[in-house]
Amino acid sequence: MHVPSSATSEITILPFRKALEEASREKPEYDVNQWLYVPDFYTEYRYILGTRGKKPLICVGINPSTAQPGRLDNTLKSVERIALGNGYDSFIMFNVYAQRATDPDTMEKVCNLQLHKENLEAFSYVLSISEEPGIWAAWGTIIEKRDYLSACLQDLLAVGEAHGAKWYCAGKRSKAGHPHHPLYLPKNAPLEPFDVADYLTTLKTREGRK
Q: Is the predicted pLDDT of residue 184 greater than 90, yes or no?
């Protein structure tokens, strides 16, 4: 379990580019030629966790949990299986918001704009790895936990459009239209086109009615 020890505004946030530079250096804990882990140490936030390849599937959840290189949780194990099953040679786990929290109910209630800005920088980098980036929307209903998450996702959509990314989902969507979470999906679950712009419009309309 990881329960945030403080708001991310109360700690030093390592800029993504600096964190990426440090994550590329050889280290005894894991093989940097196999893993992409940014920052390269366990802390209150995480930008990226994944395997290196020429054609990664970028899976987008809501916020990171406890997984680390060589210590994938069940969600990440499912992400890796489905990525390989759909013709990708690697996977990258990304998140709408970078704060670590096993229980989404413990996420901070106010968006840290600095952390979000660095997370967008990380997303742009992740998309630049592949010539035809594919993004798997996989956040389930958790996006309803905090009001700022839809705005963060809107910014991710803009970055994705700049890189010509294609969005997908897998499995049955919820009644509210949320894309299925990776857990409990069969390893041969196919990726299907996902209109994230239309989804966001519907999501914001629903939020406006609350």
A: no
